[in-house]
Amino acid sequence: MDRRRMAEIAERLREEVARHYERELLETGGLWETGPYAPVGVEEYRQAKVFERVLLDEFAGTRLEDFYELEEVPTEYGPAVAIVDREPYPGLGVKPDRCRQEIERAVRLLWGVGPATEQHLRSSGYRSLRELVHHPRWGPEARRLVEAIDTGRIEELAFQVWRWYTASHPLSMLLLGLINPTQFAFLDIETLGITTEPLILVGIAWPEGRELLVRQLLVRHIPEELPVLMAAGKSIAEVRALVTFNGRAFDLHFLEARRSYYGLEPPPDKPNFDLLFFARRRWREELPNCRLETLERYVLGIERSLDVPSALVPEFYVRYLSEKNIGPLVAIIEHNKQDLVSMALLLSRLWDEWFG
Amino acid sequence: MRPFGDIVDELSQCGQVVAELTLPGREPRFRDPARPLPAPLASYLRRKGIRLYTHQAEALDRVRKGENVAIVTPTASGKTLAFNLPILERLTAEPDATALFLYPLKALTNDQLVKLREIEEELGLHLGAHVYDGDTPTHIRPHIRAQARILLTNPYALHRYLPWHGKWKRFLEHLAFVVIDEAHQYRGVFGSHVALLIRRLRRILRRYGANPQFILSSATIANPKEFGERLVGKPFVVIEENGAPQGPRTFLFWDTALEPGRSPAQQAAELLAFLVRRGFQTLCFTPSRRMAEVVATTAQRLAPGKTIVSYRAGYLPEERREIERGIRMRDIEGIASTNALELGIDIGGLDAVIIVGYPGTVNSVWQQAGRAGRGAKPSLVIIMGFDSPLDRYFMTRPKDLLTRPFEHAIIDPANPEILLRHLMCAAAEFPLTKEDLEIIDTDEVMLRPLEETELVQRTPVGWIYRGRVAPVEVVDLNRLSERIVRLECGGELLETMDYERALREAHPGAVLLHRGETYVVEELDLKNDRAFLVREDVDYYTEPLLQEEVEILSCHERIKAGPVGLALGRVRVSERVVGYQVRKRGRTLQYRELELPQVQFDTEGVWFLLPQTLAKRVEEVQGLHWAGGLHGAEHALVAIAPLHAMCDRWDLGGVSTPFHPDTSGPVIIVHEAFPGGVGIARKLFSLAEAWSEAARDLVRRCRCEKGCPSCVLSPRCGSRNQPMDKAAAGVILQFIAEALHGKVERRWG
Prior knowledge:
heterodimer; A: 356 residues; alpha/beta; Nucleotidyltransferase, domain 5; seven-stranded mixed beta sheet; 13% strand; elongated; B: 749 residues; Rossmann fold; 27 strands
């Protein structure tokens, strides 16, 4: 087999992949309408490339460990590396008792109780699940639900709330108030593509009092993807709930797909509270769209000065690898960190609005 | 016994019947399987009055033994039952076992689903048979993934779903059978892609611990064993002896050229109407949808009171089913159709079939003729010849058409253009390991170029795909080259075409056929790789005029046959479309010039090295034109090639010259039109003896004086068929055929 010829063919394949990526980038912005990223205009692209150049200059010769605090997470497939940091966090104004009370009022969680029956029950004097525990028909189920509320078993409750009230209903968010804030985590990933391409970064942020502990598992080079997936699985196993932005449609499926690629079981199944659903419910009428950047700007008042657009993350990553220069990678890391921070702020904001 | 004797006599009076041949009928041959079928299946067959033919019983026996079986018998010989029986038997005995059925067209998957569901119902089984492809609604997909035991799909869908194998664990783990129906459709570029797709599937199956049997069902081809092995990568047992009955068939050869005043469509319509009026249910195959419509409408006018319709694959499924039912019920008495009805759609047998123009392969002739005959009743097949070289060839040697061996189905999964693409896809399905490479019939060396272009990376767990775009988005099963042109009409994408092919077939002014409709190319924007088409009903067609230069890069094999050298190797083709012809009914109306860039690609070619002494003989002794003879011989060789290798006119090109710098002498080069080649050149090399003989006969037996489109004149010749000397071409081809006689071993098939 002629080596030169094969090299030619591979070169053309590479070009084809690049061309396809560009077309998706500029025209369609990925498979799904709501993301994972917005299409990039020509001017935005140009600016991003200028930014990339600046980063390459700035970070030439800098090592990752010089710039960030790194932590090693051991896994069966070798260590995974995480960048750790802390960011301020306003927290949720959670009053657990009040949460419990609110949730108890959701009688529609009972199988067979719709709005009409709810009215009927109310006029008969039943306003909460607790009041129904002795009801001839719904007693046993009400008792089970009340017990779940008392012991904070949000795994069960989430399923019921999403089924009877939808995942965007404030009641769903209220469930987060039933558990200790350290028991849920924000999750946002960065990837090289949307389906069968490798992972770049898994960003997880835990509330710790007035701070957010941010841990970003990084794939420094492709062979590290497997350890990162293992470490991410471990982190997910340790929490009781995840808060994501579009995670239901993207992040979790992606992690599952990559784990399946390596023959690993899917990540542990945890209730996923998707901020996109809540945001849409709250701001859909007021804003042009509900992308995180849009919400940041108009709701949180945050304007990112130098940032890599989500759609260009793959390109920046490829540049980092080929130039062996962490500059573009730093932009990705900071972008992801800000995503996590914004998600946390958004949750607080929604919480204040709905339950403050 | 002369079935249809009166009809034939009447038709012969028109003076266009050049031959009449009757093939005797054949009694059915039945056999019982080695072990009886389980009671439910046995009683089902009894209820339907079905006894198993020999080939069906053999298929059952062999599949039960665990072998990979290729059933290669004609259409309507009961192939579907032959493989459905053992599969149903196993799936009822093993409650977890599953089966995958692959069809080249979506239309067929739906038809087969209907059949399977009927059997399920009859037998009271619940096998969960489902079609799973792009049309399957999203909300039922999880259910199908969880429950289905029989899946029907097509290669395009399979290609896109393989990366999601994790969601199909249950189905794949228990996969007992993979059925590849209409397998002969998988040839050329498409077939080579599918061969690799199947290897990707096998690799995934191995990961889940499954090792299903493969069952191939194909129309008759010359090389079923070789083809099966190339397609799947496993050895096959071939079942070819057809036990189904066949009534006597009378073949009439009708020369349309003998009545130049009426178009072939007109003549076909008249024949169709004539037969239908006499009460014979008749199917007429035409080369295009447009002709099918014209023939149907005209024939209907000529036979009022009867029902004559047209049929094509582009109809909606409900429409097609209605027509198919009408044909089965004999409510529809006449049909004009494209070759869509060649495929295994069940319409029962008809009394007569008209074939308008040689359909391109002997294989197709038999597929189409195979529609004639109900059980043991006699039937009539009328083959109408146009004036293209192959049609002429058969009009003058009708017996040859009926007795000649079938073509070889050709694929080349080792073509690096295709292989590298699928290696990329495989690496994105799960990490590619060295053991996997064995299934794909390749080795590490092939991955290096992909590593160097950073499309895959080697890691401790294997090679991982690391591109930014999913490979299945970038790999198209019908394409070879990387640069594609999008053909758009009214803002919508009609199809995509390889760049090289687009220059030839989608140049400004070109007439294109897409799903049976005609379009004209208004503009070809090569800066953005787009062609803009308008839908137009035109009655002419276009042929590009190509000028080319061929450089010989390397030689794989060479045979010295006396004074002639025959070689197979790698060539570099530089081709330029310099203009095109506007043609109607085989005549050129106009030549138009074009300014298009040159393309260059490397591919496989066969060439004939000739001695200088032959030049002397031709010029001095016979007073003929040497270069003109070489030119004519080249055209004849290209024109007749499809007789042997299953390819079509776009698949080959050629050059000839009295002096080629790479051979320092006279040479005729015939090469493939696809970068990398798909095995056609190799096949022609192995059949060079028969090939050159056929080319010689084509030229020598042509009754024209100085050359015509039926022998040495090529409609695509960039130099407008100059210089040309038919007699010299005949001498040269005779020389080659004589020299090669007995010297070329048939290595394949």
